[in-house]
């Protein structure tokens, strides 16, 4: 690839920014962008994308759960598909870049490549996944999870309900998806590339333009319950108390101390705290809190969790309270393909861009593809590290830089005659077995 012409890439970047602005309009009224799975706003946004894809000359289609695709057919028969994209849904009162940037960039990249170089050797597809955030229903990665086989066909759709009691299947039916019988599951994806805002502060703080993701961190979530004895705050001596809140507070501080000592990339958080009876003049008798612990290496993540929970037991015994722990989530780390990381570094250097290797502490659709095919993630900076907020912002120049890196990698994967970064079909099938 001789490199995109400056004027052409600027035009493509302008088109991407326009598409981002148009997508942001599909939102419920209120601050920020709210576009939840299978709501009218979500449905209208996906229909808008289908029309936009058709107008661009790409082949447009949607699958049974509402994932929207734009296809640029290749000239070689057989082999695998190079897939790129992100998700269309948002959190409540979220920003306009999380997910949507990757969708807008992927469609723009395919349009640019088609206009500049014609048909690729290998099929390229852009995707707008139906859901990733888990903001409406008690599940995540519904879009990419149906593509990769995380969810069995239709499994749980009648039992999974939102806060108003609507089942997932009912919500799908209201969007007109009940008549679709084509499967979302795919076994033809040989590579997946996702461009995303960092949702953190490291790129901005270190002055780097591009983040080359090494891995998406594994995650453990626990629900912890500490039980003591509720008693009168004025008549119970300090030495005779079984204070559940004091014990829980010591556990939270222990978690923070050990996490700081462990160092990056481990992070650990007590996120939600509930106190019973939660009144001013009663010693707390029961406290429930959540743990969120993440690390890019599975063995270290599991060992840290085991050690911390054992230490919690020691705190409970010393303070005369009981502690019980329920594991709520166990997600393994997802390493990105080393060969694609190497390609991204080469692209950044050839384009004169500053870059850094980094771990993603947040979850992404890419983590579902990583065990199944060659996968890469590209980050661009987030101002002040803010995301999932109306204040989420990345400058047009930074967004354009990510687009240009994405275009170069897709050219490498789709247009070059010899490319070891793409699995042969037999190897690809083994990965999806």
Short overview:
With 433 residues, this protein is α/β, with parallel strands linked by helices. It contains twelve helices and 15 strands. It has two domains: 311 residues, Zn peptidases (Aminopeptidase), CATH 3.40.630; 114 residues, Alpha-Beta Plaits.
Detail the topology: elements first, then pairings.
Layout lengths: L5 H19 L15 H17 L2 E4 L5 E5 L8 E7 L12 H18 L6 E6 L12 H7 L19 H7 L14 E9 L4 H5 L3 E7 L1 E10 L3 E2 L11 H19 L4 E10 L5 E2 L2 E10 L2 H22 L2 E10 L2 E2 L2 H13 L4 E6 L5 H4 L4 E7 L15 H20 L9 H8 L1
Parallel strand pairs: 3-4, 3-5, 5-15, 6-14
Antiparallel strand pairs: 1-2, 2-4, 6-13, 6-15, 7-11, 7-12, 8-10, 9-11
Provide structural commentary.
By secondary structure, this protein is of the alpha/beta class. The chain has 2 domains: 6-216 and 333-432, Aminopeptidase; 218-331, Alpha-Beta Plaits (2-Layer Sandwich), CATH 3.30.70.360. It has 12 helices and 15 strands. The strands form 3 sheets. Strands 1, 2, 3, 4, 5, 6, 13, 14 and 15 form a 9-stranded mixed β-sheet that branches. The protein has a 4-stranded antiparallel β-sheet with strand order 9-11-7-12, covered by helices on one side. A two-stranded antiparallel sheet has the order 8-10.
């Amino acid at each position: 690839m001789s490199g995109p012409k400056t004027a052409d890439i600027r035009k493509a970047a302008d088109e991407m920014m326009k598409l981002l602005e148009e997508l942001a309009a599909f939102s419920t009224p209120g601050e920020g962008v709210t576009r939840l799975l299978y709501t009218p706003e979500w449905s209208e946004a996906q229909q808008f994308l289908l029309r936009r894809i058709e107008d661009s000359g790409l082949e447009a289609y949607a699958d049974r759960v509402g994932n929207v695709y734009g296809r640029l057919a290749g000239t070689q028969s057989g082999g695998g598909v190079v897939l790129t994209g992100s998700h269309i849904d948002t959190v409540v009162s979220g920003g306009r870049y999380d997910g949507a940037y990757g969708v807008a960039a992927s469609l723009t990249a395919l349009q640019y490549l088609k206009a500049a170089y014609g048909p690729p050797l290998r099929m390229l597809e852009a995707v707008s996944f139906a859901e990733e955030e888990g903001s409406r229903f008690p599940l995540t990665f519904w879009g990419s999870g149906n593509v990769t086989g995380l969810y069995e066909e239709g499994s749980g759709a009648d039992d999974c309900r939102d806060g108003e009691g609507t089942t997932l299947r009912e919500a799908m039916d209201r969007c007109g998806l009940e008549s679709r019988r084509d499967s979302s599951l795919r076994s033809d994806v040989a590579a997946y590339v996702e461009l995303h805002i960092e949702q953190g502060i490291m790129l901005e703080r270190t002055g780097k333009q591009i983040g080359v993701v090494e891995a998406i961190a594994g995650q453990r979530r626990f629900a912890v319950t500490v039980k003591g004895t509720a008693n009168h705050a004025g008549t119970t001596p300090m030495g005779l108390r079984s204070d559940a809140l004091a014990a829980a507070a010591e556990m939270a501080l222990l978690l923070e101390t050990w996490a700081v000592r462990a160092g990056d990339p481990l992070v650990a958080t007590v996120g939600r705290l509930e106190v019973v009876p939660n009144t001013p003049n009663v010693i707390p008798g029961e406290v429930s809190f959540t743990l969120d612990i993440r690390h890019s290496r599975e063995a270290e993540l599991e060992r840290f969790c085991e050690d911390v929970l054992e230490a919690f037991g020691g705190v409970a015994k010393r303070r005369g309270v009981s502690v019980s722990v329920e594991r709520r989530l166990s997600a393994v780390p997802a390493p990105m393909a080393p060969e694609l990381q190497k390609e991204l570094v080469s692209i950044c250097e050839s384009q004169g861009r500053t870059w850094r290797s980094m771990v993603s502490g947040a979850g992404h659709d890419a983590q579902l593809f990583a065990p199944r095919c060659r996968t890469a993630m590209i980050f661009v900076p987030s101002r002040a590290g803010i995301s999932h907020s109306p204040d989420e912002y990345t400058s047009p120049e930074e967004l354009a830089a990510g687009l240009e890196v994405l275009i170069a990698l897709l050219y490498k994967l789709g247009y070059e005659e010899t490319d070891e970064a793409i699995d042969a079909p037999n190897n690809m099938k083994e990965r999806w077995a």
